[in-house]
């Protein structure tokens, strides 16, 4: 038996002379072509209900996506020593026999995504795939992963297991010393325990976004010293322990957006000196501890938008110096002297934009960049409660006085109109026009006796009094 197997392997070794056999041995429902990296077999959307009986021995890639495959039996693909990539996405697979992938000893990439009826995998399913580097189990509705399932894959670099039904980080990940990327987003994971990620010393990217994570234990990522990208956004985190991110000295991106955090603690980012992108948006953050960002001098962007912040202290950044962009929109900012440093920073650079003021009332609706701050005689900042009410007219204006006089004259005209005939109105107007510029009492004259005379005289007296008061204000 061993002699026959060795003979089959020798016959199937790729060579230049075997180029034509890729086309000759192509399954009837498939198309085959020679590419730079070997023979490619495409059987996607072919309506297949079972795996073809034979494939070209030189096959380097087989695509069986979007068919009706339900079961993979033992040695489902025969012996294909040149096969590096196998894709079975979007089928109806419900059971994979242990040993189904025997004979594919050089397989490096296996894609089983979107087989919603799979739900369960035997612990020995991948036993023959010692060289597998990329495994895709996304959207298979898996409730769990057997502890030993991935132990047979020492070369595994990337695991895609998002859109599944895990309630915890699969224990099968522990000890995968070469794993660099783990995609576990859009599931039902509720916590990241201190033992969940043990032994993942080469892990560079971990995606846990859009789960139901309520708790991250202290030192949960302690073994992940190579981690560069950690996504925990869109979960249910309300609190974090001080040592939640201890040991992540190489972390470059941390996304905590879309949670329920009420504040930002100084201890969280103590070890994150290499952090470049920090997302804290879409939380309920109302306060930031002093020094919270003091070690993050290399940040390219800090997202604090969509929170409940009314004030942000410069002490949150000291003694470091924030060099990147700061996103602060959709917060109820209280634009008093506590934000003067931020207004000055906005003026000196373009790194901060859109800081709309919600209070005090004198600046509500303005952007912080438009708020006026002044200094008192002893050099202290003066809150803009009064300043911004007159910010549009810093000097004394005579406009309101003139407006008052004109309104008073208009009122007198309306009072006089119903009681004075046209001729009397002309005479009265002439009398007013010749009034003395020294604001002495004008001569109104008596044009007729009785009630009209008294009314006209009183009106002239009031108008003269108003002009005298106006002139006095202008002299002051």
From TrEMBL:
Keyword set includes Transport: no
Location relative to the cell: Secreted, Extracellular space, Extracellular matrix
Keywords, in A-Z order: Extracellular matrix, Glycoprotein, Leucine-rich repeat, Proteoglycan, Repeat, Secreted, Sensory transduction, Signal, Vision
Signal peptide: 1-18
Pfam name, any one: LRRNT
GO CC, any one term: plasma membrane
Positions of the LRRNT domain: 25-61
UniProt key word DNA damage: no
SMART domains listed in its UniProt record: LRR_TYP, LRRCT, LRRNT
Gene3D superfamilies assigned: Ribonuclease Inhibitor
An example Gene Ontology biological process: visual perception
Positions of the LRRCT domain: 331-382
Recorded family membership: Belongs to the small leucine-rich proteoglycan (SLRP) family. SLRP class IV subfamily.
Name assigned to this protein: Nyctalopin
Record organism: Cavia porcellus
């Amino acid at each position: 038996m061993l002699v026959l197997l060795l003979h089959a392997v020798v016959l199937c070794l790729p060579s230049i002379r075997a180029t034509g056999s890729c086309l000759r041995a192509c399954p009837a429902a498939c198309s085959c072509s020679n590419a730079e990296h070997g023979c490619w077999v495409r059987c996607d959307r072919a309506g297949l209900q079972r795996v073809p009986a034979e494939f070209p021995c030189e096959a380097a890639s087989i695509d069986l996506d979007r068919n009706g495959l339900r079961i993979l039996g033992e040695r489902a693909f025969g012996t294909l020593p040149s096969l590096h990539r196998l894709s079975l996405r979007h089928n109806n697979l419900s059971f994979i026999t242990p040993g189904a992938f025997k004979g594919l000893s050089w397989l490096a990439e296996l894609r089983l995504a979107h087989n919603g009826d799979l739900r369960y995998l035997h612990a020995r399913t991948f036993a023959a795939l010692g060289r597998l580097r990329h495994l895709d189990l996304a959207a298979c509705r898996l409730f769990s992963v057997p502890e030993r399932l991935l132990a047979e894959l020492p070369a595994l670099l990337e695991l895609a297991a998002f859109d599944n039904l895990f309630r915890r980080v699969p224990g099968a990940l522990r000890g995968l010393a070469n794993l660099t990327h783990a995609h576990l987003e859009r599931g039902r994971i509720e916590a990241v325990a201190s033992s969940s990620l043990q032994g993942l010393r080469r892990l560079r990217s971990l995606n846990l976004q859009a789960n139901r994570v309520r708790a991250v234990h202290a030192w949960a990522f302690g073994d992940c010293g190579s981690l560069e990208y950690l996504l925990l956004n869109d979960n249910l985190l309300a609190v974090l322990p001080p040592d939640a991110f201890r040991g992540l000295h190489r972390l470059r991106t941390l996304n905590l957006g879309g949670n329920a955090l009420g504040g930002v603690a100084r201890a969280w980012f103590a070890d994150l000196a290499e952090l470049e992108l920090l997302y804290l948006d879409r939380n309920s953050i109302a306060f930031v501890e002093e020094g919270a960002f003091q070690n993050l001098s290399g940040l390219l962007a800090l997202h604090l938008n969509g929170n409940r912040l009314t004030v942000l202290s410069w002490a949150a950044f000291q003694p470091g110096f924030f060099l990147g962009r700061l996103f602060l929109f959709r917060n109820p900012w209280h634009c008093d002297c506590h934000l003067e440093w931020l207004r000055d920073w906005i003026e000196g650079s373009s790194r901060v934009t859109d800081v709309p003021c919600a209070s005090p009332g004198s600046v509500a609706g303005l952007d912080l960049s438009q708020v006026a701050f002044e200094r008192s005689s002893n050099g202290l900042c003066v809150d803009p409660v009064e300043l911004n009410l007159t910010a549009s007219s810093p000097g004394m204006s005579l406009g309101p006085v003139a407006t008052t006089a004109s309104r008073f004259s208009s009122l007198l005209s309306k009072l006089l109109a119903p009681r004075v005939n046209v001729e009397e109105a002309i005479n009265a107007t002439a009398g007013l026009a010749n009034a003395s510029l020294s604001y002495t009492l004008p001569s109104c004259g008596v044009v007729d006796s009785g009630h009209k005379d008294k009314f006209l005289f009183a009106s002239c007296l009031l108008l003269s009094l108003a002009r005298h008061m106006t002139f006095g204000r202008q002299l002051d």
